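Tokens for HAD family hydrolase. Go.
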Amino acid sequence: MPPQPSPGSENDRIDLVLLDVGGPIYDDKAYRDALLRAARELAAEDGRSVDEAEFQQVYDERRQAQGGSLRTAVAERFLTAQDRQRLSDRAERYWEYPPSALHADVLPTLRELAGRYKLAVVANQRAVVVDALRRDGVADFIDIWAVSEVVGAEKPDPRIFQHALREAGVEPKNAVHVGNRLDTDVRGAHRVGLRTVWVVRGEAPPEPTPEQLAEPDVAVFSLAELPTALERLQGAE
């Protein structure tokens, strides 16, 4: 079924919705826990320990800042700056999304959007994330795939967004990216000419500032708000 017409102008029309995975679809705690486990193991090799409360402080500082690498910050605090890649590689061994990580609002929202819009996944993830999305029924709704390990580019690199746009045959003005980070999702998508919906959960700031909330075209606090947000972006009253 083609996208339904909207009451806004041609430029307002949305044909394609791009979705991040960590945050909007799955609970980001899965990656947080994988990174903590990896940091503890590497620290233990040198006879050191990682306090979870201190780790959470570093994690929340990076969430609040919406800039800078969490892996670099963790390596510098608990290991050494040179251990960043080791930390990243070790964390990837444990980074999996169990079925319980799927947010409850995801499948109902995708059912509502399916048929009205083309849907894409645009995510900085390993290729195996598609297996989890298939297992949990998310992949049934996805038309376009842009997973960083497959595309060879990570957000905010324009190439990963452009890959999804090319595959969908949609112009940037008629697409919206939905993500939970300002640095990689909102700012990266804006540079390509996409509109944005910021899902304020997961790696979004614990306490978003008015300035941060003003960066995306629309900010929402659950995926259940997305259908209404998309209507707003198309000029619906």
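DSSP finds eleven helices and six strands in the chain.
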